[in-house]
Amino acid sequence: MITLRSFVCADWHTGVGTPTPLYNPTTEEVLAETGSDGIDYGDVLSHAREKGLPGLQALGFSGRATMLKGLSAAVHEHREELIELAISNGGNTRGDAKFDIDGAIGTLAAYASYGKELGDGNVLPDGEGVQLGRTARFWGQHVRVPRQGVAVHINAFNFPSWGMGEKMACALLAGVPVIEKPGTPSALLAWRMAEIFVQGGLLPEGSFQFIAGRTGDLLDRLGPQDALAFTGSSGTGASFRSNPNLLAQAVRVNIEADSLNAAILAPDVDASSDTYGAFLDNVVRDMTQKAGQKCTAVRRIMVPADRVADVSRDLAEGLARIVVGDPAERETRMGPLASRRQLEDVRTGIGNLQTAAELVCGGADPIRDKGYFVAPTLLVASDGHADALHAEEVFGPVATILPYSGDAAEAIQLANRGAGGLVASLYSNDKDWTEAVILGISPWTGRIWIGSDRVVEQSFPPGAVLPQMIHGGPGRAGAGEELGGLRGLEFYTQRTALQGFQGHLKAAYGS
Ligand code: NAP
After folding, report:
1. With a threshold of 0.85, does the pTM exceed it?
2. 101 phi and psi, to 5 degrees?
3. What confidence tens digit (pLDDT) does each residue in 207-240 have?
4. Is 394 found in the same domain as 318?
5. 245: part of which helix (H) or strand (E)?
6. Which atom of ligand 1 is nearest to the CA of 159?
7. Residue 370: which of 328, 325, 330, 332 has the closest Cα?
8. Residue 361 lies in domain
9. Most buried of the four, 56, 311, 475, 481, by CB within 10 Å?
10. Is there an atom of ligand 1 within 6 Å of 14 CB?
11. Residue 100: CB within 6 Å of ligand 1?
């Protein structure tokens, strides 16, 4: 039995009290146990502030970039071992595991490259300087400096590797020490990464701490220079938003939460086109990769009403080719959900969707005696506007086809019923239709992926989150924003307006 320990105050801490079991979701066997009771979070924060902050800030941007490169290389070196953990504890297929682990490797490496260009200091120019006085002598320049606090990162269970890696990359490059807490059901992978980072001596003391379990009174102790970045359900996110200490101390809070992502097929897309092929491939991939437990996965598929029968048939054929089973077997394309709770939630969610839609394939019934399996489940609604289709993110291999007229206006109306999303994918070769939909859904959407015959052959699928582009979305999606190249550092830095002598400000801080 593996016991996950927390790494706090430069030491490994075994939780006291009753541990929480971690399961293999394929076999339901207990793999490990974890618990964080007994940690003094006052000490954890002091350690980060007193040791971690000065250690990190002494490195400057370029030194921290070198450090991130080392973290990326260490994950890469242990990739095979980490893949095995993602399979056993996360229910990931090998492909799912690589998506998560390579995501961390790539994002850490990307921020290492950004950091190399930023020099040895700790101050970044923010935009161009401006003349403020009668002559250019009196000048203004915005700058960004690392905040003198701690970044607490609370992650969801679905991306234990990438989720931790992408948050760490931005905070550490900015110069802020991190306290990482993974989602408990799949924490084995993140815990092993923490061990690799610590054993490799890859980070200055106090700059990285890891909580295997719950965070106790940590959030009640955060102060005005600290930050909380959270990924998970909107319910948990809302509870953090209303935390009295976080409000009173004006702690920065970034929330990445649920999303009813839309895929919208335009009426101009011919069934023989590359764009239609990409639409089918992407929807099937999104529904089944990581068993649909991806915040960016498509949940609502908008299809012109006269195409619904053909699209239902084509998607069902694609889903039938997905081999569901033990993710340790090479031919398996989709494994189980990560936990019993997820299985129960997804079954309930399918039932709720069935109040407004018919099953095309799959359903809530068990498909194996053991393990948290659910079949890829496609539904089709007769009325795409029914409330139940826009109410709940069913976090599994589940999506619903919503018929619409084909008009851009109705596509916009339906997409925005999601009340704020992470990503929408558009499939069209019609420039006017595409531009109308972009304008209509942008205020409600963090990222828009535009597939046409000119790009689908070269594009990453819409579910992939790239370090160059922002990740996050308004409303239900949490109103947060991460990544986006150097924009990802903004959350961990303070923008300050400097006003003074141009000769000084330009030379010292100009872009
Ligand atoms: P969750 O139940 O909200 O948990 C998320 C994280 O919060 C876990 O680490 C959990 O710890 C922790 N947590 C819960 N209550 C807490 C509390 N009172 N104090 C401190 N920590 C607390 O969500 P989940 O089931 O793990 O993840 C699934 C959800 O995440 C889905 O809704 C999905 O859409 C969303 N998600 C969003 C994104 C995005 O980028 N927008 C990405 C991935 C997932 P324990 O595990 O120990 O309970």
Report:
1. yes
2. -75, -45
3. 999 999 999 999 999 999 999 999 999 999 999 9
4. yes
5. helix 244-248
6. 43
7. 325
8. 261-469
9. 56
10. no
11. no
